[in-house]
Design a protein that fits this description.
Chain lengths: ~140, ~1100
């Protein structure tokens, strides 16, 4: 089960933070900082997995952005690693060559994408065409 | 971003927040502006600034806005608030409204927010609406509805229990997405209880086959792999279902084989499937062919140049290595390489793997590697984890003393103050208790002392406080073993530490305790005097207290030596917990008219029920004990002046020993205090040796009786008796919690006899003991409590282990058959409170609701009529006669119920009419919601399986309490003359089928009572309140099979258990117009169900 999803840049600025577990605000900030400290020190040759408290973080770096998913220890690492990739592919399609600025200016849309693909701490939709169709439908409302 | 940049950003955002605050609270703000503000607030909050002033506006926006504004409102709510935020209640109405909307988008938004955050207590408000959505025409709505239910299942499983059937519908949904969503729920439910869903295995296998075979629409493929996440989910479900279950596992071998074969594409996601597949293959019932393939797969992972795969390979090895250690050997070179890998995560996993394969030969190397890693890591979680593992390995496999102490030194200095507190206390216990070899122990202690002294000599090194505490304890206890060092020098070192600033006050207390222990050994020590001088003016009161103690003891060396003997840390102290030496004082106080002491608990109770003040009326002789419930003192002052002043120390006089326990402590800090039975009053009713049991007496019992007889006669041998008594008490104390926790049933089949014999034996002995040395039991409880305190306070729980003298003769099969019988007879006569001394009270009555009023064989007769081979199993069981449940002209099926002490069995006899012969018969039980049904081969009844009949036996285990439920099934049979047929049947079961008496002491009752959280209170009106209690107790005991634990005045305690691990306690109190029942249990629904049954039973009587 997913505990939280974070997107951070290299400087540690949060670009997205979605919590599936109950934390208070201070705890959230602490977690964000800790994740940043744990993830950024890692070499490109290292694994994409880090143990984190009683959980583990599956992360993947795209340009200057770290996409991190915190899951239970018993969960399948590669499945979530690929879920990140799937998510990034959707973003790329949706924003047409996504870059960090897209995520900054449209951050609330990114949350919508997250909500379409992940729900209640589980992977909800993995089909890119379906997600994009739904997103375009929502976009047409604006 | 540099520091200045950070400051600027903060300033900017604070300004923005101020202007936003003004805008959102202005009444003229339009919803459109509000939406814009919300987005900005979200951004600020995401960067870590407080935007809580906007929360309420987010809720408003979700409520009032048009579609687009509503969407932003919902998004803001789901990001701002958490599940238990109070503002969330304001959202419920909006959600309900939107769920009923005809607009698809609104419904979806509402469902999304419900599956993210929804107040648990408001679930009933939306549940029916969401259930309706399961039939919605749009796939996306059904899917979100399933996930919303999944969320509810996570946070409040009880509330969605009734819609399990709908989950099945979702699993069979025509849309793959909905089916996939329902798997989340199934995974969770199967994890909790796999046996209830075995029937779905076939469906899961079929689905997986279709997915693997590429039957899904191409939409679901990811990088041309068909629905990989769905595959993984299914594999996990299968792994849980097939665990330890050969029949279920066999169903899935094919599809697993195919999965392994199909996943050949070199892509991360295929490896994800492979990894899950390997995991499943190793968790289900093994099949060598598959294991071989899986092992090959693991090899592929381990040898992969890709670091992620290598890591997962190691992870896979870690969990298969216990089943197949050779696999680790195959990859030893890779493992060695990984040990020095630059990625700490890989290293860590390698150590985890090594930890699992440690044995006495490789322990030094592995621990060395672990220590190396430990010194580099800074993360607290890792340190705590690793330190625990090292300590465990060191204790288990240490090759020699020096190594052990050095390793533990490293553990203490690195693990320091974050490690689990058990580690130092386990270590100290190990040192103190030692092993079997005394010289070895001494060497270990000497080595420890020497090593600590040399560590303390190193200048300018700071050790963690816990380590210093360990050192000071060891030095204080075992410095005397040193030849060269004088205690004075040790004291000097400790003094130096005491004066250091880096030592916490807790550690200082340990240090001063060590100095105190060493002082009597030192001839003269100026350091001690200096220490006393320094610390008698300490600002720390605790330190000052310790110093004064030391000072006064120091003045009288003889007393000090007696008080602090050398190497006595493991000796047990006998503590008179009842403070009986104060009896004289108390008596004096009472004679001057002081009010008797009432414990806090009782005072409160009295406050609550003002009209129910302490009962001062005289009772009958047999109740003399319960008159003065409140007093803490054990002496029978109020009974008569001649007994006052009795205590454990002054010794018991034969003449009054029987009345010694005339006063009982009813309530103490921990609830009910141990029951000390006074058998003196009702001696005629309960003869010391039941005549029946004399006949069945076997040698070792006779021995035990003789022992007790001697004990009675030679009342001077106090100590021995105390030991015997306390050992029996401890034995009982440890036996019953095991039963209560349900651990007994983890014992595999072949040990069942053993444990049963043990139970019977200890019950028997305990009751005999209760009878013959009632005077002792009061002592024993005191000593037991004393021991208990010591054991917990000092961490030396050796007492329990030592005092379990259940010798090997207990396991002697020859004496087995008699034991349960004797146990029961004596139970029946002795442990039932005097009020109900009718000896047949304990007889096991089948519940009235049993299907048949068939002649229920009383246990006594059952034993006589049964063949010898059944005797030991059925000695304590009762069974109902056969009831014909279905049949046709050729075959009849009858069902039997067998109420065993540790479970409930159902048996079915399929019999062919005379003249024809059964070729084969098959009996299937349909899964039931509230209990687990498992086949139990063998036969516990005097029925014979011949050519014309077949016997099927199932054991039933309660999972959720219920009142009445039907168990149905079907029989398929084939007769020799090729006539085949099928019959369905149904048997009704009651909760009472599962209830068994729980025989515990009043003390255990009190402890249990406090540990149970779920309770129900009920008042029952009775026509004759005066006689209400005895008759009610009797009814409850007979009809519900509750065990009467104790009766005090107008209160009664009853207990029952539901094998394997649930128990329920009942406290009833008679008052002016009826009976107040108060039930408590560890299981939430049980008190409710049981109180219903009580009500029914009492109404009927």
């Amino acid at each position: 089960m997913i505990r939280f999803i974070l997107i951070q840049n290299r400087a540690g600025k949060t670009r997205l933070a979605k919590w599936y577990m109950q934390f208070d605000d201070d705890e959230k900030q602490k977690l964000i900082e800790e994740v940043h400290a744990v993830v950024t020190v890692r070499d490109a040759k290292h694994t994409n997995f880090v143990e984190f408290r009683n959980f583990k973080i599956i992360y993947r770096r795209y340009a200057g952005l770290y996409f991190c998913i915190c899951v239970d220890v018993s969960d399948n690492n590669l499945a979530y690693l690929e879920a990140i990739h799937n998510f990034v592919e959707v973003l790329n399609e949706y924003f047409h060559n996504v870059c960090e600025l897209d995520l900054v200016f449209n951050f609330y849309k990114v949350y919508t994408v997250v909500d379409e693909m992940f729900l209640a701490g589980e992977i909800r939709e993995t089909s890119q065409t379906k997600v994009l169709k739904q997103l375009l439908m929502l976009q047409s409302l604006e | 971003m540099d520091y200045i940049g950070l400051r600027e950003e903060e300033k900017l955002i604070q300004q923005e927040l101020i202007s936003l605050k003004a805008t959102v609270s202005a009444p003229t703000t339009t919803l459109k502006t509000m939406k814009e503000c919300m987005v900005r607030l979200l951004y600020c909050e995401m960067l870590g600034y407080d935007a809580s002033f906007g929360y309420i506006h987010a809720i408003k926006l979700a409520q009032q806005g048009n579609l687009l504004e509503k969407r932003v409102g919902y998004l803001a709510v789901s990001l701002f608030l958490h599940e238990s935020h109070e503002l969330l209640l304001l959202l419920v109405n909006t959600v309900v409204k939107d769920l009923q909307s005809t607009n698809l988008v609104e419904v979806c938004m509402a469902l999304t927010v419900v599956s993210q955050i929804f107040p648990r207590e408001m679930i009933p408000a939306v549940l029916p609406l969401i259930e309706d959505k399961l039939q919605h025409s749009k796939e996306i709505v059904r899917r979100k509805a399933v996930l919303a239910l999944y969320k509810f299942h996570l946070i409040a499983p009880n509330q969605v229990q009734h819609i399990h059937i709908k989950f099945r519908k979702a699993l069979c949904d025509r849309d793959v997405g909905v089916m996939a969503a329902s798997l989340h729920i199934y995974l969770r439910m199967i994890k909790e209880n796999s046996s209830g869903y075995k029937d779905l295995t076939g469906s899961f296998v079929t689905i997986l086959k279709q997915v693997v075979g590429g039957k899904l629409p191409v939409d679901f493929s990811y990088h041309s792999v068909p629905a990989p996440w769905l595959q993984i989910q299914l594999l996990r479900v299968l792994g849980l279902l097939g665990k330890d279950d050969q029949r279920t596992s066999e169903l899935m071998y094919d599809v697993l084989d195919e999965s392994l074969r199909r996943a050949e594409l070199n892509h991360n996601v295929t490896y994800a499937i492979l990894f899950e597949c390997v995991h499943t293959v190793y968790s289900i019932y093994p099949k060598s062919e598959l294991l071989e393939k899986a092992a090959k797969c693991i090899g592929k992972f381990v040898l992969s140049p890709k670091i992620n795969l290598k890591y997962l390979g190691l992870k896979a090895l870690t969990y298969v290595v216990q089943q197949d250690p050779t696999l680790a050997l195959q990859h030893q070179m890779t493992i060695i390489e990984c040990l020095d890998h630059p990625d700490p995560i890989i290293k860590r996993e390698t150590l985890e793997l090594l930890y699992r394969i440690t044995n006495s030969q490789n322990v030094t190397v592995i621990v060395q590697k672990m220590l190396e890693y430990l010194r580099q890591s800074k993360e607290e979680y890792i340190i705590v984890n690793l330190v625990g593992k090292i300590a465990e390995l060191a204790e288990k496999y240490a090759p020699d003393n020096a190594w052990f102490i050095q390793t533990m030194n490293a553990v203490f200095s690195v693990g320091g103050d974050v490690m689990h507190p058990d580690i130092p206390s386990n270590f100290l216990r190990l040192l103190a208790e030692g092993f079997d070899d005394e010289t070895e122990d001494q060497q270990l202690r000497v080595y420890a002392v020497q090593s600590y002294l040399s560590l303390l000599d190193v200048e300018n090194v700071f050790y963690p406080q816990r380590f210093l505490q360990v050192m000071s304890w060891v030095l204080g206890e075992y410095s005397y073993l040193l030849d060269k060092e004088k205690p004075e020098e040790v004291i000097n070192r400790l003094y130096k530490l005491l004066m250091s600033d880096s030592v916490s006050s807790e550690t200082k207390a340990w240090l001063i305790a060590a100095v105190t222990k060493l002082t009597p050994q030192a001839q003269t020590s100026s350091t001690v005097e200096r220490l006393i001088q320094d610390f008698s003016v300490s600002l720390d009161t605790c330190m000052r207290q310790h110093t004064f103690e030391l000072k006064h003891l120091h003045e009288n060396v003889e007393v000090m030596k007696n008080l602090l003997p050398v190497n006595k840390s493991c000796e047990e102290l006998v503590v008179d917990a009842s403070l009986s030496f104060l009896d004289g004082y108390v008596a004096e106080g009472l004679s001057r008219g002081a009010a008797p002491y009432k414990p806090h608990h009782q005072r409160q109770e009295e406050k609550l029920s003002q009209e129910k003040v302490l009962n001062f009326e005289p009772y009958g002789l047999s109740f003399s004990s319960s008159g003065f419930t409140g007093r803490q003192s054990p002496a029978g002052i109020s009974l008569g002046s001649d007994i006052s002043g009795n205590s454990a120390e002054t010794g018991l006089k034969e003449t009054n020993s029987l009345k010694l326990d005339g006063v009982k402590k009813l309530w103490g800090k921990e609830g009910y205090l141990p029951k000390k039975e006074s058998k003196a009053g009702d001696a005629p009713e309960a003869p010391p040796v039941p005549p029946e049991s004399a006949a069945a007496e076997n040698p070792d019992q006779a021995g035990a009786k003789r022992d007790q007889a001697q004990v009675l006669v030679q009342s001077k041998e106090e100590k021995e008796k105390q030991l015997l008594a306390s050992s029996l008490f401890v034995g009982l104390g440890t036996e019953s919690p095991i039963n209560l926790l349900g651990k007994a049933d983890t014992v595999s089949h072949k040990f069942r006899r053993k444990s049963k014999a043990k139970e019977a034996r200890s019950g028997d002995v305990a009751s005999a003991q209760n009878l013959t040395c009632s005077s002792l039991s009061s002592l024993s409880s005191a000593t037991y409590k004393g021991n208990d305190c010591l054991a917990t306070v000092q961490g030396r729980a050796s007492a329990e282990a030592k005092e379990l003298p259940l010798g090997p003769e207990l396991l002697d099969p020859e004496c087995l058959p008699e034991l349960p019988l004797v146990g029961k007879l004596s139970d029946g006569n002795l442990s039932v409170p005097p009020l109900f001394a009718d000896s047949d009270m304990e007889v096991f009555h089948p519940p009235l609701s049993a299907v048949a009023a068939a002649p229920a064989a009383a246990p006594g007769t059952a034993e006589i009529t049964l063949a010898a081979s059944f005797l030991e199993d059925t000695a304590e069981d009762t069974c109902s006669g056969g009831v014909e449940v279905c049949g046709d002209e050729t075959v009849t099926v009858s069902s039997y119920k067998l109420w065993q002490d540790d479970g409930f069995l159902m048996g079915w006899l399929v019999a062919a009419e005379s003249g024809s012969e059964l070729q084969s018969a098959n009996l299937d039980i349909f899964p039931a919601e509230n209990f687990k049904v498992s086949e139990r081969p063998g036969c516990c009844l005097p029925v014979t399986e011949a050519g014309s009949s077949r016997w099927f036996q199932y054991s039933l285990q309660l999972e959720r309490p219920f009142t009445e439920e039907a168990l149905s099934g079907a029989v398929r049979y084939q007769l020799v003359d090729t006539q085949a047929g099928q019959l369905g049947f149904s048997v009704s079961l009651s909760l009472l089928d599962f209830v068994r008496p729980l025989k515990i002491s009043t003390e255990d009752f009190g402890k249990l009572w406090l540990s149970f959280a779920n309770d129900v209170k009920q008042n029952i009106k009775m026509s004759e309140p005066q006689a209400a209690l005895p008759s009610a107790l009797k009814t409850l005991q007979q009809k519900l099979r509750l065990h009467v634990v104790d009766v005090r005045g107008d209160e009664g305690l009853l207990a029952c258990r539901l094998p394997p691990s649930t128990s329920c306690l009942l406290h009833c109190r008679a008052h002016a117009d009826g009976l107040a029942l108060w039930l408590r249990s560890s299981c939430p629904a049980l008190p409710d169900c049981l109180s219903y049954q009580c009500h029914k039973a009492l109404e009927g009587s």
